[in-house]
Write a structure and sequence with these properties.
alpha/beta, 8 strands, 5 helices, single chain, 207 residues
Amino acid sequence: MVERNGVHISKMTGKLEGLRAISTNTATNEYCIKQNGTAKSNNICTHCYSHTMLKSYRKNMQPALQHNSDYLSSEVHDMDSLPVILDAFMRLDAHGELINLNHLTNLVNMAVKNPHCRFVLWTKRNDIVVKYFKDNDKPSNFALIYSNPIISTVMGKVPRYFDKTFNNVLEDEKVELQNCTGQKCKDCLLCYTINNTTVIVEKVKKY
């Protein structure tokens, strides 16, 4: 983990190798806990890789991610307190989910401060997104991907303020639509760049 002006930046591995991320603590996020514990088996949150990792072999990540949760959600920080990012792309909440309006505001302000970097946020918190962007502009370098919570249902219509939808299907379902399977993000960048693809489909990973 690297700290820049109070924010920890993670070097990613696995599918996200080569990218860095600003993440928060899934294990203490009330929304994540509720969704992960739901009895609805078709909710993708019940297959959450982050809960599994942070409770076991990546438990040592929790203090740094909790720092980000507290720092980003507690108040809206002035620009000088937000990090200078030298990356071309920054993944937001590779672990965790939006906590509140302060959290989203700080992420957007990072994009404003770093116009050369493209910030990409996956979120299910449409309620927070709508509340914020109905009164605020979305920077051109800030991309929003709606993370569809329902397995085996592909959302073709992109919600307002979002740029794409991200969907999970079972391995043998909608194979012809699966465009996010068996590759690293750095070799694809379909989610991270401006293009004509607005619907991303991946087969469910089980942890």
